[in-house]
Amino acid sequence: xxxxxxxxxxxxxxxxxxxxxxxxxxxxxxxxxxxxxxxxxxxxxxxxxxxxxxxxxxxx
Length: 60
Prior knowledge:
Layout: E1 7-11, E2 18-21, E3 31-33, E4 36-40, H1 44-54, E5 55-59
Parallel strand pairs: 1-5
Antiparallel strand pairs: 2-4, 3-4
């Protein structure tokens, strides 16, 4: 899709793309920072790969 025709997608990282908690979940964390276990949302990479084809994406 030409850059001029792409939609703008703005995503919040915390609780939209990842989940961070002090409590360990029943699956392996993607990483740990300080006292927080950080987990990617299911299908995150697949989602990002698809939206980058159609949008200009910004993450905060």
